[in-house]
Amino acid sequence: MKKAFINHKIIKNYIIQNLWLIIFFTIIFLIMNIVVIFINTLNKGKQGLSFFNNQEYQKNNLQWTSVLGYGNYLSEIFSASVILFSIFNLILINKIIVKEIVKGHILLLIATSNSRIKIILSKIVFLIFTSLIMFSPSFAMTIIYSIIDLSDNKLYIGRLITYQLSFITFMIFLILIFTFICQILIEVNYLGLILNILLLAYILTMDYIVDEKVFQASFFKYISPTSLCPKVLKFNDVTLNLKPKKGEISFGTLIIDNLGFSIASIFINLFLSILFMWQIIYNFSKKDLNI
């Protein structure tokens, strides 16, 4: 009989125990994405985009106006999405790892036939699985909306899917960093949580600096963790054709310089996630749990 790497009963019990929490955050994230679609629909064909004010273009090219708006709106809620996923997972990490070890409940699991590796791997799979649950309805709705509304622009839909996959793999990587920090600092009350909050603040600050070009120094993108989730959906207002020829329309172009890296970032995030997962498993298997 093949030996399982995870315990499905542990995962199932955690899902049942945290079901309302999972539903609540899934609905909140879904509402955020519905609002984005709603705002984009309202602005479709209107003069509402900050870098796009050509009335004739908006009148005759509603499809492209919709593309411009939707991509930018999705990119704009990136920080809010990271905060929401982080809060959700920090709550779960605290409940199923930190509290169980501190209160000694973890010893009850270890006393069963489950190995330490199987226990911690089941917890990690639960964290990743619940994040995928939270992400999936919004992802499906976004893709369906894009296929219907942006059907003439299949390349853009491809970039949209790339961005979404880059985002969720980045969040999985971030979840494992949060877990790793809480695990190694579990003996010190709340220090792991404080460091994770500071890490989140650093990530959001770097994202703002890079995205809004607060400083002109380009090296900031190399120290920003959010570079592992490139925003290929953004449109570049700098490349506007300010002097269009007669009969031509002025419009923005997608920032596609980082499209290749955006695809690569999915695999980079997965690779880094595997490294942190291995480290978490190794630490847990060696850790003295009689705290």
What features would you describe in this structure?
The chain has one domain. It is 69% helix and 1% strand. The chain is built from ten helices and two strands. It has helices at residues 8-17, 19-43, 55-60, 62-76, 78-102, 106-110, 116-149, 154-184, 191-212, 259-286; strands spanning 235-236, 253-254. Helix 2 packs antiparallel against helix 5 and helix 8 (154-184) packs parallel to helix 10. The protein is globular.
Strand-helix topology:
Layout: H1 8-17, H2 19-43, H3 55-60, H4 62-76, H5 78-102, H6 106-110, H7 116-149, H8 154-184, H9 191-212, E1 235-236, E2 253-254, H10 259-286
Antiparallel strand pairs: 1-2
Helix pairs in contact: 1-7, 2-4, 2-5, 2-7, 5-7, 5-8, 5-9, 7-8, 7-10, 8-9, 8-10
Descriptors:
two-stranded antiparallel ribbon
Mean pLDDT, to the nearest integer, reads: 77
- Supply Rg: 22 Å
Largest sheet: 2 strands, antiparallel
Q: Structural class, please?
A: mainly alpha
Principal-axes shape call: globular
Number of helices: 10
What number of domains? 1
The percent range for helix content is: 55-70%
Number of strands: 2
How far apart are the first and last residues' alpha carbons, in Å? 36 Å
